[in-house]
Design goal:
Layout (H helix, E strand, L loop, with lengths): L6 E10 L2 E9 L6 H10 L5 H20 L4 E3 L3 E9 L10 H4 E10 L1 H8 L3 E3 L10
Length: 136
């Protein structure tokens, strides 16, 4: 899983109105998979990794069932998942149809305040390239 207990950023150039500006962008080394998370949970519990993964997969399935029926799902400590529609406006109520207004239907996520605090307090450091750095 995570090599560091902090995450890194690096400056990147951006052209804004034909002028070069600089922004700080987060650097992500790799993605943690469901299997990776299940293995980590299993090391701190008496549950086998396959059982943890099975419960997590079923949890995701149940979240999908709730969202498909128009319900939000609040998981204490993690956040709230909810159905989300991104739409555009039309001039006349007669034109306000699924075909004319809805751009996309997706899943929204609002992180729990504890999760937001955890990311804010995790530490952000500038990424430094070294000779022994390996891209994954």
């Amino acid at each position: 899983m995570a090599k560091n207990r902090y995450f890194t950023y690096e400056p990147k150039p951006r052209k804004i109105m034909n002028e070069e500006k600089w922004i700080a962008t987060l650097r992500q080394d790799k993605m943690c998979s469901l299997e990776d998370i299940a293995k980590e949970i299993a090391t701190r519990t008496t549950i086998a990794p396959a059982e943890v993964e099975a419960v997590m997969i079923d949890c995701l399935f149940q979240i999908g069932v709730c969202i498909k029926s128009g319900e939000g799902v609040e998981i204490d400590g993690l956040g709230t998942f909810f159905p989300r529609v991104i739409s555009k406006t039309v001039e006349d109520v007669k034109d306000a149809s699924l075909k004319n207004c809805v751009k996309s239907i997706t899943v929204g996520f609002r992180p729990d305040s504890r999760l937001r605090k955890a990311i804010k307090s995790s530490g952000l450091k500038k990424f430094e390239y070294t000779d022994n750095y390996e891209e994954e």
